[in-house]
Amino acid sequence: MNCVELHHSLTEIEDGSRPDQRAHLKTCPECSALVAELNLIAATATELQAAHEPSPRVWNSIEIALRQEGLIRAQHAGRSLLPAFSSRWGWARWMAPAAAVLLLTVGIYIRQHSQPQQIASTYPVARPDATDLPIAGLNDDDLMQEVAQQSPATQAKYTDNLRRVNQYIADAKSNLAAYPNDEEARRSLLAAYQEKAMLFEFAMDRSLP
Amino acid sequence: MSGRKLATLGAVSGAASQALTGALCGALPGTPAGLIGGAVTRAIAGAVFGVIAAGALVAQANAAPIHAAPIHKDLHFNVSARAGVSVNNAYGSISVKPSSGNTVSINALLFSDKVEVDSNQTGNRVDIQTHLLPGATVDSGRVDYEILVPADASITLHSSTGPLRAEKLHGDLTLEGADATVDVRDITSAHVHVKTLNGPVTLTNVQDGHVEVDSLSGDVTLNRVTGPLVQVISTSGGINYIGDFGDSGEYRLTSHSGNIEATVPETTSANVSASSVRGEVHDDIPLQPRTHTAFIVKQGSAFVGTMGRAAVSSTVVLRSFSGKIHLSKRTSK
User: Fold this and answer.
1) Which of A110, B90, B104, B331 is the most buried (most CB within 10 A)?
2) Which residues contact A77 (CB under 8 A, 6 or more apart)?
3) Contact A172 B321 (CB under 8 A)
4) In the prediction, which pLDDT does A22 show?
């Protein structure tokens, strides 16, 4: 076995423990050093995985992004990228990544509106209209459905907060329309959407078992 | 059921039985109590009340039992520098203070056996999770935590009801709770992120912080909070800043309908811009005017200027739609 053959064989037996691999490693200090490094990386990676396991929400976000890109399809059986969710609240678990996508969409929307008119006319793009919330699969009915099982007092709070934040968004939009070059007006609209995303996030947290 | 509850139920039983006897006699106008006989009336009343009492006992047994005395649970974890500690509590308070050594100590007070505390240590990270069992309610699912951590630990706290408290730490802090009151004090050189829907937020003596507070309708009070970035977003809650805006940070206080009040000492140096679309704007401090502004300054609804030394100053942006904005000078006591 030469060095090239050993490198190919490492894709199958990556720790160099096969007899022919061991024979080559005894005579080749460079390959021996390479295998030692690979073993070290593998061992360290295991520890890193345990110490920095991303939260389920990270996996949610990755999966929703992959679905939107059409890179993966829904799995009806077997292991999913997502942790197992109860069917009752399964749809609600999408709210956090959906809120993130909403913010991203709004960010793009605001950025597009902030470009000089000349650039906008050169590169025409489809802009979301005022009803941009459903873009992320996020609407007020979903929110109220999410808190429907809560006490009347809690539902009243969410209804009130929803009304306030929607008014915030409406005002921020009209202000940005009036002053399209005002950086602070753009920030305010983003802040308003951030508040709404937070409202959805808390509504989702309440339903956790 | 505790003995005290049984005794109380017994006392109520006697009074209720007597009341029921009277009610039965009243409900049978043609059969006066004397005619039927007191013994018969009392027997019927006793039987009826017995059924009611039995039903009450069954209902009590099915409801979430709450122990007369809360259950204590102590947990201890050895960690090294810059540990991570996360506490996810459904209902109840979380208080975090610094410990003297490299130990994370958790003192949990469980208010019933309908709730458990799960813990997990992975490397230098400790995760605490309140685990609600079937039938748990806001009351029976409550757990109050008192936690000691190394001062440099990064902390993440979550509780729907709170309150959430953290003090005398210099690791990063994240505190979230829909209705939770949040109280953070004496924090240095840390990221402090707070999110609430309705709960009031108070940050006191946070130095060199990277502070971000989002509160939908809770009031936010910042007292001596400085750092490279201090940002508050509120929809309807008021924002109250008391301090000197540091010397080189960016301070953004934004609300929709909540009022913004900033009270600063005379020595403050800051480039200030304030604007309210429909609310009033007042400043009690003479500002050196700036010629170039990012927005049109309308008298009464906006002001822009520099206070103190422009060369050593922070950027302060106060922005509201319908809330009032007031920049005032702190009076010396």
Assistant:
1) B104
2) none
3) yes
4) 83
Length of chain B: 333
Statement: A95-206 belongs to CATH 2.60.40: no
Residue scoring higher pLDDT (B66 or A84): B66
pTM score above 0.80: no
Residue whose tokens read 């927005």: B295
Answer yes or no: do A202 and B197 touch at CB < 8 A.
yes
- Chain A residues close to B273, C-beta within 8 Å: 184
Domain extents for chain A? Answer: 3-51, 55-84, 95-206
pLDDT-derived band at B149 (thresholds 50, 70, 90) equals very high
Q: Parallel, antiparallel, or unpaired for β B143-149 and B94-98?
A: parallel
A180 interfacial to chain B (CB closer than 8 Å)? no
What is the rounded CA–CA span in Å between residue B156 and residue B295? 38
CB contact under 8 A, B319 and A188: yes
According to the model, what pLDDT value does residue B257 have?
Answer: 92
Q: Which residues of B touch A (CB under 8 A)?
A: 90, 122-125, 132, 158, 160, 176, 178-179, 195, 197-198, 214, 216-217, 233, 235-236, 252, 254, 256-257, 273, 275, 277, 294-296, 317, 319, 321-322
Q: How far is B214 from chain A (nearest CA, A)?
A: 7
The position carrying tokens 């685990």 is: B131
Residues of B in contact with A164 (CB under 8 A): 216-217, 235-236, 256-257
Residue type present at position A124 = P
